Amino acid sequence: MPPPEVEFDVATRWSFCSWCDEWEANGGIQGVGYLEPNSDAKFRSRRQDAWLQEFRDLLERQKNGEPGHGDGNLLSEDESGAAKLPPDLVFATQDDGETQTRSPSDQSKHAEALLDDLPHRRLTDVQEDASACFLCAKIWSAFVQWATQNFGSPGRLDLSTSRVEMAGLWPKRLPEEGESVDDYTGYTDDGIHGRLCFIQINITVRDPTVPRRWIGPSVTLQRSCEQPSRVADIFEGANAADDDPLTWPEAEPYTARRRPLTADPRLFRKWKALCDAAHDDGCRPGRLPIGSRPLESIRLVDVESMCLVETEHVEDVLWVALSYVWGTAPFRVLTSATLEELKQEGALGAPWIPATIADAITVTRGIGERYLWADSLCIVQDSDVDKMRFVPRMDAIYGRAVLTIINAAGDSALSGLPGVRPGTRFQQEEPFAIGAGHGSSNNTTTTKGEIGADGGVGSDGDRRMWLVQTYEPLRTNIEIIGDSRWFTRGWTFQEAILSRRWLIFTPEQVYWECRQATWREDACWELPLWHQKGQTIIYEPAFYEGAFQNLWDLSTVQSFDETYQCLVHSYVKRCLTRESDGLYAFSGVLRAMTQATGFEFLWGLPKIFLGVALTWPCCRVRPRRRAERCQIDVPVLRRDGEDGGSNGGSQSKTVEACFPSWAWVGWVGQVYFHEVFGHLDSEHASLEFYHIARNDMRAASDEDGRDSLVIQHIPQNQTFRHYRNDYGKPFKGTNPLWRQNTHATVSISDIPTALLVPETRFSLLIVWTSLAELVLELNVNEPRGKDERDKDEEKSYVLRTDDGLKLDVMWDQHPPPFNEHEQQEDESYWKRRVECIVIGRDSLERSRERGQLSVLIVKRHSSGGLSREGEVAIWEDDWNRLSNRRWELVFLI
């Protein structure tokens, strides 16, 4: 449905309320737009050296726990995520076509005014002024649209405590040639690089379902001109671009462009041609590592013959991939019964084809490609054999695609791609002018939707700036598509991550994103000639803030560490219809990482860093165990004793197994990497881990193949990353008295028979470690901090020794709730005995000078296996003092 319209008096179309007047009068608007890079080589070299050194100093201060933003030259961010402008930036303004610059004192004043000088405002005030103030009308209209979509009506929200704020918003850019990862912040705040500033209006209200939480949309305004160019101007008229992908109509960089209600496929084709011509191999399809198991064949939609085709010559064919949400509404898919029928020419022109796939066929044809891959039509959905041919090869299917079409607008396969068909997009934004003299046209008579002949400016000498609202979704997350249904689904995560280039359909706009640029329908962002001059190309990723822009550049342990943590942190937020897909929907990413680094994975954890990765935290929350089983590829040991994993001579067997409790993939819930986790190459506890594999030298002598099983040792990283804590004190290790013979032998005969059944044998993690029994207590009446008002936060979990000594601990995962029989005479007090095992060291070192052990609260099963139920950090010297600790061979399931 189109967004609601807000009526306002046409006689005051260019008037502003006192609040908007104050904002404009303070000069905040003058920073909006694009400032070219400083081309003076001497200035750049001198200024860049100083800035980069300052940035390195800042990183070092932050690393050492010292204040980091005292100098004011580097970019900082406030809590809302809006970038604060450094005080020494030089803003460029346009006045009669001339570029002017401000003095440092002036620009500091304007930058501060842009962000800090304005008083906060309530939505009730905005609503009151919406009939007379054009800017307020836009703010109120955006809020009504958002509130209606999410809550049915604005009336459900409390506007008396709402806030409306304006802030500068700086998209990220690409690093220039020669910049290293350590030098690159992603923001243009150094007076050297070109930079682009939007105005972001943030609206926040209390969540009616969770009153302590603040929510709301953001409205973004971009620089425009009185008559912005149209998308059609690229292809029509005397100044239209020819077939050369590097030739585009002249336009002020990054200014607004009018996009049509029905998308123009010629723009998508030209974007693709520009990327092909101007970008390096980072954007090339097929450059993604695709593992050692080749894609032996593929089934595709032929968009010219409108039928399914199959080919074994995968290397000789190109295709577009589709990433979308199936949704709950039923629709027809490929089955064994319809396969031959859909191979007939014209069969896919049938009206039953879901709208999203039908529109993707149109887009594929429009960008000049012949083949489309869509899972519901390219995998036989009632054939497990067919699924096993293609589902494990998602890394190849999406990694080799020419580009991936993402439907970030709909909630089902029936939704369609907005803009492909007439009547599927509704928003038409008109530019509006602000600046000196903006109110002088109050007597100009215009009709709704028209711009006055003088553009709303009273005299030729009046300074004004033209703005227009972007066609971005009204966002409540950092990511442009962060509130889409597509962004919440588990399978779509790896579909996007494994792709090289994306054509992203949002409700009112289409974006192009590749590894080196972002382009959009509503703005002139292509700038091919600027790129040839070596000047900045703004990169504003639609999702993940560009963290995965160079995803497969994993040449160092540090880059692998950062990427892996980002991937897991993002993936576990997603939802899956079937819990059994928890590992499957991430396996393509893991295979690609193995191919890029040589690091293999065991249930989603990197083997070489297993001793640290096992300490994954969930920040005291209680995730939920996955109850369903899943299919995994079990490595088969070759005759030389090495496993046949992705690195050589691939041999593996697909089996069905239970999810293990010791791996994050065995749980549903957030894993808090980054926030409360250190580095994968931090020091581990020097434990030795083993798991079960198959041996191709032994033939199975019984039905379940037990005789072919073999114990495989998992070598651990021995090159540790050490860092100082926040107090600047060197880390002092404690003599690990608890650790005995970690190299004690382990054989199949040591494992309880009940654990060698097919569903658990490959979920086992075997380790000699230290175990002790402790007393877990809970007292809900124990006083807490005054800010912790939520009842659940008032709970206080305590671990005690048998003699009553309370241990100083830090929880990374709270244990399961107490049972009724564990309640003591005091009804607010519970107690139980729990078994605890050492699993690793705390990778964060908890900002103190003494070491901590990562300890699992475990449950012992009748089979002899132990399962993780909680996690806690305990001081190593405290664990050494436990009188009842013992050394035991543990079987984690």
Automatic annotation (TrEMBL):
Superkingdom classification of source: Eukaryota
Stretch forming the signal peptide: none
Domain spans labelled Heterokaryon incompatibility: 319-495
InterPro entries tied to this protein: HET
Pfam families, alphabetized: HET
UniProt region (Disordered), positions on chain: 433-457
Comp. bias intervals (Polar residues): 439-448
Regions that span the bilayer: none
Protein name: Heterokaryon incompatibility protein-domain-containing protein
Organism the protein comes from: Lasiosphaeris hirsuta
